[in-house]
Amino acid sequence: MASSIAEMMTLPRSLEENFTREIYRYEEENKMPYITSVERLGIEKGLQEGRQEGRQEDIIAVLQVRFETVSDALVEAVNGIQDEAILTNLLRQAIAIPSLDAFQDLLNSLET
Description:
The protein has six helices and no strands. It has helices at about 5-10, 15-30, 35-65, 70-80, 85-95, 100-110. Helix 3 packs parallel to helix 5 (about 85-95).
């Protein structure tokens, strides 16, 4: 089922241009941009990826502060994780875990 006007109909070129101009006029008058469902999904995906990337960086930073040297393999493993709940748990573990070896074991347990 279509969720926006743009997905429900295809306009002839001249009408599409007029529609676009009207959207821009509406945005200016109301100080509110029109966002299509595709744009909205893209924004949400970008925000989620940004949160994941930030979480991955946070995990690595905590490990570097605590243990100084973090192997490229461990950094790669953390950067390969996309699940936000797992990343949140790993960040908490990185804060309290006793060693890098224990953290690596934790990562290995996620793969099995």
